[in-house]
Amino acid sequence: MATAHTTAHGHDHGHHGAHHNEGAHGSVKSYIVGFVLSVILTAIPFGLVMSGALPAGTAIPVCFGLGIVQIIVHLVYFLHMNSSSARSWNMAAFLFTLLIVAILVVGSWWVMLHLNANMMPGAMPME
Length: 127
What we know:
The chain has 3 helices and no strands. The protein is mostly helical and 127 residues long. The chain folds into 2 domains: 1-86; 87-127, no CATH class. Helix 1 (28-51) packs antiparallel against helix 2 (56-77). The longest helix is centred in the last third of the chain and has 32 residues, at 88-119. The radius of gyration is 24 Å and the shape is flat.
C-alpha cells in the first residue's frame, strides 16, 4: 500500500530534490575553515594597526587588501559562490549588490569631499 510520500514501486519521493543539491551546501569542515580564515583575516589588520607596526600609508592599503581577501573567503566558504555553482541568478544578484555598494561608496566619498565647501558658510572651496 502506497502512502502519500511513497509511490507504488516503493521509492520515497516526499523530499523531492532535497539531497540532489548537497554540493550547494557546505560541510562542517568548510564552515570551520571559513571561520578560522575570517578570524585570522580580522586579527592581522587589527594587530597591525594596534601595534603600529606599519606606517599609516602602508597599513591602510594592507588592511584594504586583507578586507578584499576576507570578502572572497566569505563568498566561497559561507555563500558557496564558486565556479562549480552555475547559478546565474546568484551571480546576477551578486553583481547587482556590487553595483549598489559601489554607488554608495563613491557617492558617500563624493559627499564627504564636498561637504566642507557646501555646508560651511563663508568657507573657501576645496581645490
